[in-house]
Amino acid sequence: SNHLHLIIQVGNTPLSKIIQNISFRYTRYINKRKKRIGHLFQGRYKALLVDADAYLLELVRYIHNNPVRAKMVTDPIDYPWCSHQVYLDKEKIPFLTTDFILHQFGYKRKISQKARSKILNPNVTKECRALRQLREKKGISQYKLSEIEAMTDEE
Questions:
Q1: How far apart (Å, rounded) are the C-alpha atoms in residues 112 and 67?
Q2: Is residue 131 a contact partner of residue 151, using CB atoms and an 8 Å limit?
Q3: DSSP string spanning 70-139?
Q4: pTM value surpassing 0.85
Q5: Which residues contact 38 (CB under 8 A, 6 or more apart)?
Q6: Per-residue pLDDT tens for 69-90?
Q7: CA-CA-CA-CA torsion sign (11, 15, 19, 21)
Q8: In angstroms, how far is CA 153 from the centroid of its own chain?
Q9: Alpha-carbon torsion 66, 32, 9, 102, what sign?
Q10: What confidence tens digit (pLDDT) does each residue in 98-140 have?
């Protein structure tokens, strides 16, 4: 693959400074490791502002399933450079937090591994979208455990 996707929640530090720092450090690491010099990335980064929680899950699902769409793997769990394993509690990465996204579906510990896997599956998009639209009309920000179970056929 020739690109990567990141979801970054920014605070006081501008996104451009964060990306510049990541790019600089990663380029320096690769150039030292490969005994080379010069640029590593081509062109500028592209950023998309996600200001609605409703779109966030779609974005996470898109990113997790991108290696499957690119025919690099048949299941996102098999792609080593994805956070899918972290969302399923199969791996820990110290700087990666999943609580905010999983909190949109209720409390993290109540959601089983099977339910999390189905939530991140692209095939439930239609059902999730319909439920999200209904919830947005009612002004509800979190899913209840019973709604997750209904979406994932889990009890």
A1: 24
A2: yes
A3: TTS-SSGGG-TTSTHHHHTTS---TT---HHHHHBTB-GGGS-HHHHHHHT-GGGHHHHHHHHHHHHHHT
A4: no
A5: 31
A6: 889 998 888 999 888 888 888 8
A7: negative
A8: 23
A9: positive
A10: 888 777 665 455 565 666 666 676 665 555 556 556 656 665 5
